[in-house]
Amino acid sequence: MAELTTLARPYAKAVFAQAQDSNTLDAWSQQLSLLAACSQNADLAVVLTHPSLTIEQQGQALIDVCGDELNDAAKNLVAALAENKRLTLIPEIAALYEELKAQLQNTVDVVVTSAQALSSAQADTLAQALKKRLQCEVRLTSEVDESLIGGAIIRAGDLVIDGSVTGKLSKLAEAMKS
């Protein structure tokens, strides 16, 4: 995966720079999201890596699947990726682009996985606490995983806070073994 990130980073930075210059950050987010979703389709993935197709045919197949929703700049990106045999990097490029955009906008996406659904008051309180700790705007999404028994796991980029009962039991079991 580190190799994919290394290969995708220059493309993501180039798209991000172009989006900043043209003030089209959100439009590029939509274009890259669409391209990533289409390129991850199992049937299309076979076409994008099929050895009997030319690079132009592979790129055109992706453009055709996305249809009229792609603008000319996104079509040019697909053509450049196809020419360099990098169409498989599109999901990674999209993810890196979103990271760059979040850094610029000083925001962070936080996923809270809890044993029970969070109330809106709990979500607001948690978002405010995380905003204070991380010193940036927080976009909070929540998931339910009943196997946690209680508590929650908070993921914000590289930061993971495990306050779940399952996590605490695992730490206790590890401490008892050593």
From TrEMBL:
* GO CC, alphabetical: plasma membrane; proton-transporting ATP synthase complex
> Where does it reside?
Cell membrane; Membrane
The entry's keywords: ATP synthesis, Cell membrane, CF(1), Hydrogen ion transport, Ion transport, Membrane, Transport
Q: Which residues form a coiled coil?
A: none
Ranges annotated as spanning the membrane: none
Q: Which GO terms describe its molecular function?
A: proton-transporting ATP synthase activity, rotational mechanism
The UniProt entry lists membrane topology as: Peripheral membrane protein
Q: What is its main location?
A: membrane
What name does UniProt use for this protein? ATP synthase subunit delta
**Taxonomic lineage per UniProt?**
Bacteria, Pseudomonadati, Pseudomonadota, Gammaproteobacteria, Oceanospirillales
